[in-house]
Amino acid sequence: MTDQSDDPEVPIICEECGTETTVALSELETQLERHNDNRHDGEKHATVDPTLKSQLQDLVAEDLGLFE
């Protein structure tokens, strides 16, 4: 089990609802699925904040040496 104090929070947004929130990384997938299932009949409207997603993709690509 993850110690809640060590679990980073991830911003998620839903432009369809106009909502923004943060959730623990360990709960991210569950919370996104729950929101999209309950509010949007399973359509994927709620996502990780696009700015953060882009930053993470860049960090992973850099770590893998894809920018060299």
Automatic annotation (TrEMBL):
Short name of any one Pfam family annotated for the protein: DUF8149
InterPro entries: DUF8149 (IPR058462)
Residue ranges occupied by any DUF8149 domain in the UniProt entry: 3-68
Protein name (database record): DUF8149 domain-containing protein
